[in-house]
Amino acid sequence: MSPMPAQPISPLDGRYRPAVTELGEFLSEAGLNRARVRVEVEWLIYLTSHEMFGSRRLSTEQTHALRQLVTEFGQEEIDELGVLEATTRHDVKAVEYLVRRKLAALGLGDVAELTHFACTSEDINNLSYALTIGTAVREVWLPKLRALIAVLRERAVAHRDDAMLAHTHGQPATPTTVGKEFAVFVGRLERVLAQIEATEYLGKFSGATGTFAAHVVADGEVDWPAVSREFVTSLGLDWNPLTTQIEPHDWQAELYSRISHVNRILHNLCTDAWTYISMGYFTQIPQAGATGSSTMPHKINPIRFENAEANFELSSALLESLAATLVTSRLQRDLTDSTTQRNVGVAIGHSLLALDNLTRGLGEINVDTDALLADLDGNWEILGEAIQTVIRAEVTAGRSSIADPYALLKELTRGKRIGQPELVAFIDGLDIGDEAKDRLRVLTPAAYTGVASALVDHILR
């Protein structure tokens, strides 16, 4: 058997690549290296613009040419870095050598020694990860989440009045509305969304053990912490003054925990939607040319929700592992975070894939109001809650002497199916006021939804 051409191992780089390809722009080795080049270039520009150590200020054209090393970073640079790293066995050192080569080509060899000046590789790496992760989350993942929330909000409004039998513990319970249940997910997601949007992307730039030791020896007159702060914030990041060799990654742990929280909420939505489909509350819209089963032609399987459910699980497993492990580093530095952080794109990629499938799935279902009403009409015993509550109010108001309203309704309804005639006859015989009897006689399961419809307004404010 002849060997196959090289194939991707991860399904994110194979079968599912179209759904996650945008992440590769940032959360790939090439994306990371482009960010590293950016940090090295911007540090060089910063040092020369302040004429540090007698360096000359670069011209506008030279500064532009340096920044083009980032904007025009492509396959040629990717290949060159591969060759350099094969020799250096050090990814950041390879980037430094690449930048030095580019400086020579641009006629800027006189400032080459300011490349990677007073930096440890983690100074470059932590800023690069903060830049790439922040951009990927803000420009790729969050728009997908916001789009999904918009779909859920539309569903909530459209179905706010569609009464549905609830099922607490899997058993018939006080009705709700389809729209209110969608609104619950909107409310949950928007709370975590606000936390993610407020994420601090922290960066350190303070040398080998976070003490600015080499910096001070090079020039003890410079306020190096102030320089570090100014440089880090100029990249659009938040400055962390207290670190070891590495930025401690607490912001990453917070971010990944919150993205995982979103995954868990949406996993819950997937399982609920799947269940409503199996109950006939939601119907699936046939997609032209699609096959549900290789042997049962009638089937439309809820594959979008199943795919999303599984990928949310995978994403959360990785994100929670990242959150747990990245916050620990032996003494002032170990290298466990190096290989771990290379999986951030995989973790967020599975979440992005799940968001895509869930959004598509929600667009391929309809609410079967006839099925909802039929189920409500078959469960009149759920009004036992309403009746015993009204009796309690009547007892409190002095219009009834019934001793134990709950026990009375429990005897009538628990584990039994009763219909409207039996309930009306029971109400007629109750020791309560006429106005209360009138209210209960006209009550139906479909009308027993409280203010469910009005609650949807909370997601419109």
UniProtKB/TrEMBL annotation:
Give the matching Pfam families: ASL_C, Lyase_1
- GO: which molecular function terms? N6-(1,2-dicarboxyethyl)AMP AMP-lyase (fumarate-forming) activity
Domain Adenylosuccinate lyase PurB C-terminal: start-end pairs? 329-449
- Which Gene Ontology terms describe the biological processes this protein takes part in? IMP biosynthetic process
Q: Identify the pathway.
A: Purine metabolism; IMP biosynthesis via de novo pathway; 5-amino-1-(5-phospho-D-ribosyl)imidazole-4-carboxamide from 5-amino-1-(5-phospho-D-ribosyl)imidazole-4-carboxylate: step 2/2; Purine metabolism; AMP biosynthesis via de novo pathway; AMP from IMP: step 2/2
Q: Any idea what this protein is called?
A: Adenylosuccinate lyase
Report the EC code(s) recorded for this entry.
4.3.2.2
Lineage at the top is: Bacteria, Bacillati, Actinomycetota, Actinomycetes, Micrococcales
InterPro entries, alphabetized: Fumarase/histidase_N, Fumarate_lyase_CS, Fumarate_lyase_fam, Fumarate_lyase_N, L-Aspartase-like, PurB_bact, PurB_C
Q: Which organism is it from?
A: Galbitalea soli
Functional note: Catalyzes two reactions in de novo purine nucleotide biosynthesis. Catalyzes the breakdown of 5-aminoimidazole- (N-succinylocarboxamide) ribotide (SAICAR or 2-[5-amino-1-(5-phospho-beta-D-ribosyl)imidazole-4-carboxamido]succinate) to 5-aminoimidazole-4-carboxamide ribotide (AICAR or 5-amino-1-(5-phospho-beta-D-ribosyl)imidazole-4-carboxamide) and fumarate, and of adenylosuccinate (ADS or N(6)-(1,2-dicarboxyethyl)-AMP) to adenosine monophosphate (AMP) and fumarate.
Q: Which gene encodes it?
A: purB
* Residues in Fumarate lyase N-terminal domain copies: 28-308
PROSITE patterns cross-referenced by the UniProt entry? FUMARATE_LYASES
Q: Is Nucleus among this UniProt entry's keywords?
A: no
Task: Provide the alphabetized UniProt keywords.
Answer: Lyase, Purine biosynthesis
